## 1
Amino acid sequence: MKILLIGTQGQLGTELIPLLAPLGNLTAVDRDTLNLADSDSVRQVVQQVKPDAIVNAAAYTAVDKAESEPELAMAVNGIGVGVLAEETRNLGARLIHISTDYVFDGTQSQPYQDTDTTNPLGIYGKSKLLGEQNITATGANAIIIRTAWVYGTGGPGNFVKTMLRLGGQREEIRVVADQIGSPTWTRDLAGAITYLVENPAAPGIYHYTNSGVCSWYDFAVAIFEEAALLGYPLQVQRVIPITTAEYPTRAKRPGYSVLSSAKISAVLGTHPPHWRQSLRQMLSLFVPGHLSLVP
């Protein structure tokens, strides 16, 4: 099987490379080789590799910056993804594409199903929804996986890395407590994707996050508790819960973005691990005291 992995420098892509490599002939490309904002680049690489399966782990993910760069966000997450899906269809290949909880407005009080109405609040969510719609419109054999609150050891910064860095520098940290979701470790997500590459499932939209629910404040507290148990050198003494209104950002975020993983769990034959269990495993890769690993 020939596999094309797009987005090798991100935190998910770095987890996927060692998992996908044993499955066949893996071609892993970064933005310098395949730029989703450049449709010709997309077509050229896909036509050259002629993969049987494509995994797209690349995206424009700067949520706040997208508000001032809507054209670029739409080009990468929307238009480029549509071109990728067209090429997938033309080859008769399969596509696994990663989307986001930000396609929802967060007004529900129960986990979102893949069939629930979308209503993104910002440019990032709108661009990702456009990508979903463009994939569907092509009729490509595609699986769209919506995920949320993703963190990992590789790639650029994320919430866990930020908390570890700040926790090593400050005694007090203020964290939003009225946004609710499910943290997702890239290694767990990558494992699910790898399973789907090996075991094709019905095309459509699936949700995958770690099990369990928390606020960003709860998540931060757990990070410090688990890191302290593992011997991480922390300065933080207090984590103060605040409201979204007290921490204004350029882009609006959904207040509740818990995703139901029931559909994909049925395919995988197992439920995703609890987020705290996975957090503990991820943190064990950093400690004790490996500050140099935290950007």
## 2
Amino acid sequence: MSESFSVPVTVRGYETDVQGHLNQSVYINYAEHARWSLLKAAGITQAELIGSGVGPVALETTVRYRRELLAGDEVEVSCAFEWGEGKTFRIQQTIRKKDGTVAAEITAVGGLMDLKERRLVANAGEVFKGLASDPSLL
């Protein structure tokens, strides 16, 4: 597993539900934001992925909600890839409040799809690292 990368996010009022809690679907948006931020920091853009004929796909996402988040809360969203030998990989993420309280834990299984063949590519980690200008972040 790579070193954990994180991005700051402030919960916005329009992202909350009628009880004032962060809406459940927004946790996944925060996780996705952290993933793309990590890829960007590693030197991989969406345009470069598409241009190389591949694109990331989500195969499974599990969210464990631990503590509520409210409008104005400031959090860090971490992101760490776990590469395997096969066609899929895991992404481990934590949404943590400033005081260290874990608000949510997100585990995702992803793959890298060949956009022409519409099939997962073998060894996605190596493909990602080959595209990155700073593969150490991956």
